């Protein structure tokens, strides 16, 4: 993984609301429905969209359309790769 991508992911993880979204996803098989995000973070829709965009741009989550609604899926491969890089930095 290139350091530029590590930086992008680290920046995406630098917000409590984005961490809450990822925490929820880890507890729910790596998935979150768009409507569930409103329940876990008490923010207006434009703010929620901003946080989802940051996580998507970093590659941490991927949108999946189901009918009229979206669900977001954790990119487990990228997450594991990022965690491995973090371990090598701490050695």
The CATH architecture term is Orthogonal Bundle
Number of strands: 3
DSSP helical segment count: 5
Q: Main β-sheet, in a few words?
A: 3 strands, antiparallel
Average residue-wise pLDDT = 93
Q: Describe the global form.
A: globular
The stretches of 5 or more residues where confidence is low (pLDDT under 50) are: none
What structural class is derived from the secondary structure elements?
Answer: alpha+beta
CATH C-level class is Mainly Alpha
How many domains in all? 1
Oligomer: single chain
Q: Write down the Rg.
A: 13 Å
Order of helices and strands: HHEHHEEH
Measure the end-to-end span: 17 Å
Proportion of residues in β-strands? 15-25%
Provide the CATH topology: Arc Repressor Mutant, subunit A
Keywords:
single chain, 91 residues, alpha+beta, Arc Repressor Mutant, subunit A, 5 helices, 62% helix, globular
Description:
The protein is an alpha+beta fold. The chain has a single domain (3-89), classed as Winged helix-like DNA-binding domain superfamily/Winged helix DNA-binding domain (Arc Repressor Mutant, subunit A), CATH 1.10.10.10. The chain is built from 5 helices and 3 strands; from the N terminus they run ααβααββα. It has a 3-stranded antiparallel beta sheet with strand order 1-3-2. It starts with a helix and ends with a helix.
């Amino acid at each position: 993984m290139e350091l530029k991508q590590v930086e992008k992911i680290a920046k995406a993880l630098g917000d409590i609301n984005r961490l809450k979204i990822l925490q929820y996803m880890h507890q729910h098989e790596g998935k979150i429905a768009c409507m569930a995000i409103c329940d876990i973070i008490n923010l207006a829709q434009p703010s929620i969209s901003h946080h989802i965009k940051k996580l998507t741009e970093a590659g941490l989550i991927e949108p999946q359309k189901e009918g009229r609604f979206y669900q977001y899926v954790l990119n487990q491969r990228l997450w594991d790769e990022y965690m491995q890089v973090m371990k090598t930095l701490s050695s």
